[in-house]
Amino acid sequence: MAGHSWAIMPSVLIVEILSYLSLKDRLNASVVCKRWRSYLFQAKLWPKLSVCLRRNRRQKNKFLANVCGRFVRECAINFDPLDGEELKDCYRTLQILCDNKNLQVLQLQPLSCHTEWTETVTCSRFVQKLECIIRTSRKLKHVSLGCSEEMLAHSDFFLERLSSLHSNSLEALHLASVKEDSDNYGIVDLDIYKFRNFTNLRHMSIDYDFLDNQLLHIFCELSRAPLESLNIHVHGVGPEHESVTNASWRQFSSHNKNIEVTINLMHSYTGVAKLLDILKQNLPLTHFRQFFCSNINVPALGLMANCYWNTLKSIHIIDGFDHGVPAVYQVTTDEDPFVMMAWKCSNLSHFTLIGYEMSEHDMVAIARLRGEHLKEFHIPASCIRWLDEDNVEVVGNVEPEFTEMISSSLGRTWKPVEDDQLPDAVFDDWADAELAYNHILLKDQQFRKHTKCSSGAITSK
Fold it and tell me: Which residues make beta-bridge pairs with 171?
């Protein structure tokens, strides 16, 4: 630029330069002059927007939503639906997005599955704004309603709108909910045949209430792209629910060869009891989680070890203590079911067990069997059972030598989880259990960008 003035640099070059900078460096560059400042909020520089409406970040994010909400391609909204002000700000953000024809990704990330509606922000108005966004956008690729029970009561309405306007572009649709009262809830009508229209759908979350043989058959049609992830939320399991057959899962797995199936049980007492009916030999289970279900189905764990030895990657179980102490799961065989999983499941890399006793010998066995392949191994110190010098069983307060033994087997420094790191709901029945699992479920629903590799295959990031 020697001999030339920065003032006459073409605007397209300035925007191109700014596109290579971090947000911090862009802000620093914007103070050079008014002209550079005016280019700070060009659409090319803001392809995505993550709006956090929590109290300490509200003003900055409201400003960004007002400025960028009309042109961003991706938008995620994090808010507390039990806070009237945050709910109102979320509604206003949706109102801004109603004018955005370029929006491709919409992710609602509420902190709770429940919403405290107000006189000005009602459920029907919220639904209307979402419907407006669906109608305005020219090519939606990803829609996540954030496990909200009230929002997902309108699933069939959203499904109809999306299938008529975005059937060819939609790649991810997350309609799974969280129902804390798994024994008492109404099942909405959902026309699963509308899923046939989404020929490019690759990621889906749905309640087990709507999972049947016909839905699996739809995702076996040769004309459609294969699914890459299927997240199933299990609540109640009524006697009228159609049993998904092993043959259906076999056909489903054959067509969707790289599928990862996640099963999440939340407060699902009947779901745990009926796990052997839910799990089938050819179900390609990748991740199994259960949260606050008050029991462990040990025979079902044995089935997982035997049938999912080449697909299972993670086990995540959290439960509350029983009268202040960890519960005990009843084992009728010589070997602990989790040890058998560690032995047989060659891809098991994440293991969390909170709320139940586990013996130090079984923990050592799991650590030795999985070694450095076990990336996460979360067991609370207050749940570890061991023998003291007098051969008396003790729970908690493990010796340093035990921690060193586990660390040596895993090839890294390991420590048990301390009580102050555990969710409050583990100790308090009245605490909000959602705080223990909501962030995990929302992570399942994050946008994954598809890219073509050198072979021409499409992969997700």
Answer: none
* Torsion angle, alpha carbons of 119, 82, 59, 57, to 10: 180
> Of 103, 138, 173, which residue constitutes the final position of a domain?
138
What's the pLDDT tens digit per position in 311-340? 999 999 999 998 889 999 988 778 899 999
Domain that holds residue 61: 47-138
Q: What does the block give as tokens for 308?
A: 């999912």
Contact 313, 340 (CB under 8 A): no
Residues 58 and 133 in one domain: yes
62 lies in a domain? yes
- Contact between 44 and 15 under an 8 Å Cβ cutoff? The reply is yes
58 and 104 co-located in one domain: yes
CA distance 303 to 120: 51
pLDDT at 233 over 50: yes
Cα distance between residue 122 and residue 126, in whole Å: 6
Strand order in the sheet with 358-359: 358-359, 384-387, 393-395
Q: Are residues 41 and 19 in the same domain?
A: yes
